[in-house]
Write a structure and sequence with these properties.
Chain lengths: 428, 428
């Protein structure tokens, strides 16, 4: 039903133009009738359909990314500039109430990703009620907002879901060097909000939290101010806070074969409810940037196995030249993370740089909020991280301080579908 | 010498075009000679000169804002989208070393605001030394970066500066309702970095901190993801996290008379070293957004004294209609903050929304990082905040949790000038 191989057939890409709807145009307090009409018309707006095949034309600033598809948007979608990520705990044991929340969330996500406000806009007539939308994104463009939901291992302890937990959703082992803060780890659910305008991403998470009041509460959240990976190979490779280009050899949203091989859960993988989904590993990686900044250029380049300016692998001239791993030091990061050093293990990276104030010692609390999607955590992040944790030269300058893993269900197919239906509907 | 009335004469505004230099083009490891040539040519790039008169054309994304001028950029300059603000403590009592740092910082700021890397780019030949620039902004546009320095009251306890402390730089009183965290308050120095790309702002603060290593350390810092005020009256008024338009009647960067009256320190104000400068009040204002979001639209609009959709004052139709204060509730925020309720007190607001994860109780740690510039703190922020703290209906939904005040010296006049020269040079 959600065979990833079918998705390309349904792909329609259209350039989101300057005619993309403004949130201001689509909703207004005190102008409910008008707003409703405009919102309905919004369905005709040019959008980018997601699926296996993602067109870099979707990178148009201000446009909307299609919410529906075989896969959730926000994975193979061209990486947006900013992130707001939230992990939630479930506070209710009422299964029906939780399923209703998933439906309500889906409807809100459908509207917000299209650049619309939450609710039907009838604010003018309901002065005595709280507004359906908190309002701070009114007037802002859709900004390529994507909202992606994931289910953590602990969710499967609830609602009689124990037998539904995928084998591929393993608890991560404790890696050498981990220094995990439980207040920045785990979670029954997650929402990944990516957008080119951070206010649009923050607005989306905040409104989902508001809708979930009494049923779920935010366990931890993370703002990412700059993307560190790209899924569009022709785009400029972004730099991480160590100043190096990151994700040069990342899986591109256009590489259908590699996505099917390494990212999307296939029909034969099981469980059936996860077909078309993926698994997400989130790691908060603190960088000791003050130490790094006092390290010589040569040491920095040795640590990565690439030169800092161009990003070329050791001994090569250009960023995208094929790396010759044996020319790098045995503990070089690029060498250890390379599929050839990990029996082919490959993950789709989607991380963001963060800066969260200071640590009380005069240092910035800054680093990489690492996000990686994969078809099976046991064949993706775990073997790669085992190798890195063992001997990566970079370990002297970083520390993993937060960790979570989530099963990311397949996409919402159409306007009648909802997040998590394949997990919950058989028993509902 | 820095009479603000003269500044308009020196104003040159030019639209920063798509030809604005890319940081990538201007610097490169391993290509030092080329990079130097390009950096030198950067001087000819179209820029926006700051002074009293600021042209909204400077709002062009990607352009550079001129660093030199009678006033520091980043005050009357059209408000950029993102903020990284850092307060520093001074760790040295060596006056000469501190003055040298101010000179080094000035040179770095001059380069970074022009879209260049720190240092002369000769990285290729110095593999054994740490790079002069941390690198994460290479390839990014200047992004209208402005860097603005301020001196806190505690700085005047050092370096024999006691007699130089301006009378207008008072310690703020404790206001009713304040719940200040000393770890988010005060500071000997501050750097306000504003840019349309947050990575450019973060890069700038991080590199200044790096250059200051051993002499200064970051006391606290704050990322602002979205502007909440505009200094360009024709631009769309941004919304704060309460969903209301903020700063509708803010002082515009083009209002030379109001800037001279309310923002710039005049020759007769004294001390002489502050002529052309201003005073900055920074307040971290936590919003109880979860409570706010469960408040009726009517209550929200009563609290502000404006309608939520259009932003019109009570009883008026349009956002920019003149407010009729008596039509508002006596405790309405707009009424109490209005100059007519404060003997004409007027401040230039430049605040940003923040979201710093969660508070451990399932709530977002979100709110407004309030920044306001004024000619005299005693006639600006203090009377307004006294009035608000006393009875503002908004107080039920907000709390001030951080506070700082800084004397912001005049602008760096030319390539031989440096931050703080008017304060330090007479005795140097």
């Amino acid at each position: 039903m959600t065979d990833p191989q079918d998705a390309t057939e349904g792909t329609e890409t259209a350039r989101a133009t300057a005619a993309a709807p403004s949130r201001r145009a689509l909703i207004g307090w005190g102008g409910a009738g008008l707003a409703l009409g405009a919102a309905a018309a919004g369905g005709a707006v040019a959008m980018t359909r997601t699926g296996n095949d993602v067109d870099p034309a979707a990178a148009e600033v201000g446009g909307a990314v299609e919410f529906h598809g075989a896969h959730q948007a926000g994975i193979a979608t061209p990486v947006q500039d900013r992130l707001h990520f939230a992990a939630f705990d479930v506070d209710t044991d009422d299964r029906a109430a939780f399923v209703q929340l998933l439906k309500d969330w889906t409807e809100a996500a459908r509207r917000m990703t299209a650049g619309r406000a939450v609710g039907e806009g009838a604010y003018g007539g309901l002065a005595e009620a709280p507004p359906d939308d908190t309002g701070e994104a009114l007037g802002l463009k859709p900004s390529r907002l994507t909202l992606t939901i994931g289910f953590g291992p602990s969710l499967f302890e609830k609602f009689g879901l124990k037998d539904k937990r995928p084998a591929a959703l393993v608890d991560l082992p404790q890696f050498p060097g981990d220094n995990l803060d439980k207040n920045r780890s785990g979670g029954d659910l997650c929402i990944q909000a990516c957008a080119d305008d951070p206010q649009v991403a923050v607005h989306a998470v905040r409104n989902l939290a508001r809708i979930g009041f009494g049923k779920v509460s935010i366990r931890w959240s993370q703002l990412g101010f700059g993307k560190t990976s790209s899924t569009t190979p022709d785009a400029q490779t972004p730099r991480n806070l160590m100043g190096f280009k990151d994700g040069t050899r990342n899986i591109a949203g256009t590489e259908t074969d590699r996505l099917a091989k390494f990212v999307w859960v296939g029909e034969k993988d099981g469980p059936a409810w996860m077909t078309g989904g993926s698994y997400l590993v989130a790691r908060r990686i603190r960088m000791h940037i003050e130490t790094w900044d006092r390290t010589s250029l040569q040491e920095q380049e040795d640590v990565f196995g690439r030169d800092k300016g161009e990003g070329a692998p050791v001994g090569k001239a250009k960023e995208r030249d094929e790396p010759f791993l044996k020319a790098m030091k045995p503990d070089a990061h690029v060498r250890l993370a390379h599929p050839d050093s990990n029996n082919g293990a490959t993950i789709l990276r989607r991380g963001y740089s963060f800066t969260d104030g200071t640590d009380g010692l005069g240092r910035l609390d800054a680093g990489l909020f690492f996000l990686a999607y994969q078809r099976d955590v046991r064949k993706g992040f775990i073997p790669v991280q085992r190798n890195l944790a063992r001997m990566d030269a970079l370990n002297e300058y970083i520390q993993h301080v937060g960790s979570a893993v989530f099963a990311v269900p397949p996409g919402v197919r159409d306007s009648g579908d909802w997040w998590g239906r394949t997990l919950f509907s058989e028993e509902a």
